[in-house]
Design goal:
346 residues; alpha+beta; Jelly Rolls; 8-stranded mixed β-sheet; 4-stranded antiparallel β-sheet; 32% helix; binds 2-oxoglutaric acid; binds fe (ii) ion; iron
């Protein structure tokens, strides 16, 4: 074994460093009356952490429970059934299994996911009504409810940056054919406890930043693993630090975890932080190795939205260009990671 391999192995086996960082919980109650206060809290969280939890958001626990039930119904279908609605990179919609490789790990995430959109991108990508009766209606109803909450957050971020109240809402209008917003159902598989016979680590969601405007993440109580690692300076950097913080949303209060994505970071001239996060690959005794469900709602800009911050730090791009550039950077970083690993092979 070479010296570098030994170093890497030692690093992989070292216990994870954790630090406590506050992840604020922000109430959206009496939104119209309290909008200035809520804006101040959201801006502070976006500037200093990039992650926050929202409560009193008007999506009921029953609604969240029902969409998780629908998600389980979907994922319990046989693979050959789910394969009727395969993931299409061009449409950013559909089902994939053990297929996503993150530049941070160079290995597949051990999970399956199903990405849904509001409009034409979903043509042919819903399972038939006789396979999953009621699924499509319930999923779309949930997505519209999450969009309503997103709209409130967008009003606050627009105010915080000095734009008109509806500036971001218009740029993310899910009623338009140009909408790119995605709701992603996620299902992580139970993984063998370490040490396992091969020593293999099963990645869940390797460290990454989201490239959307704002992500709203729904989790199930008792299925932990989400961790953040702030300290990123600009929206184009792939560097990340080393001390992680566990995000434990208050399930009693039906909290939804939100995070600023690269798009909002860039649109705010890097004032609001898009933060590295991961669903930890379970590898230490206290980690959660069980099956895990989550739902991520990615607010994406309409293809023709014009994106530029108030200080014009970055050149103006359209929503379509921003997404294409982000995917291109991700692809390049992945190729570089895989090439480095190839070089290291004895
Ligand atoms: O499943 C989770 O809790 C997080 C997923 C995530 O970060 C993502 O898909 O971007
Ligand atoms: Fe993410």
């Amino acid at each position: 074994m070479s010296e570098t391999q030994l170093d890497l192995k030692a690093l992989a086996m070292a216990p994870t460093k954790y630090v406590d960082r506050p992840v604020p919980t922000i109430s959206l109650s009496d939104f119209n009356l309290r909008v200035d206060q809520i804006t101040a809290e959201l801006v502070d969280a976006a500037e200093n952490v990039g992650f926050f939890c929202i409560v009193d958001h008007d999506i009921s626990r029953a609604t969240v429970d029902r969409i998780f039930d629908q998600s389980a119904r979907f994922f319990h279908q046989a693979d050959h059934v789910k394969a009727r609605v395969p993931f299409s990179p061009q449409h950013n919609a559909g089902w994939e299994k053990n297929a996503q490789i993150r530049p941070s790990t160079g290995a597949v995430d051990r999970k399956e996911s199903y990405q849904m959109q509001f409009g034409a991108g979903m043509n042919g990508r819903w399972l038939d009504e006789d396979v999953l009766p009621g699924f499509q209606d319930e999923a779309l109803d949930f997505m519209h409810q999450v969009q309503c909450v997103s709209d409130k957050l967008m009003v606050c971020f627009a105010r915080g940056l000095g734009f008109e109240d509806d500036y971001f809402i218009k740029a993310h209008d899910v009623g338009r054919p140009e909408s790119q917003t995605v709701c992603r159902l996620l299902h992580y598989f139970e993984t063998p406890r370490l040490p396992n016979p091969t020593g293999e680590v099963f990645h869940r969601a390797g460290a990454h930043a989201d490239w959307d405007f704002l992500t709203l993440l729904f989790q199930k109580a008792g299925q932990s693993g989400l961790e953040i690692c702030p300290g990123r300076e600009v929206s184009t950097s792939f560097g990340y630090g080393d001390a992680w913080t566990k995000v434990e949303p208050d399930s009693e209060r039906n909290a939804v975890v939100c995070n600023v994505g690269d798009l909002l970071m860039s649109w705010s001239d890097d004032r609001f932080k898009s933060t590295f996060h991961r669903v930890k690959a379970p590898c230490e005794p206290d980690d959660y190795y069980g099956e895990r469900y989550s739902i991520a709602f990615f607010n994406q800009p309409c293809k023709d939205a014009k994106i530029q911050g108030p200080q014009k730090k970055y050149p103006l791009v359209t929503g379509e260009e921003f997404t294409r550039n982000a995917m291109g950077r991700n692809f390049k970083a992945l190729q570089e990671k895989l090439a480095r690993e190839e070089e290291r092979r004895p």
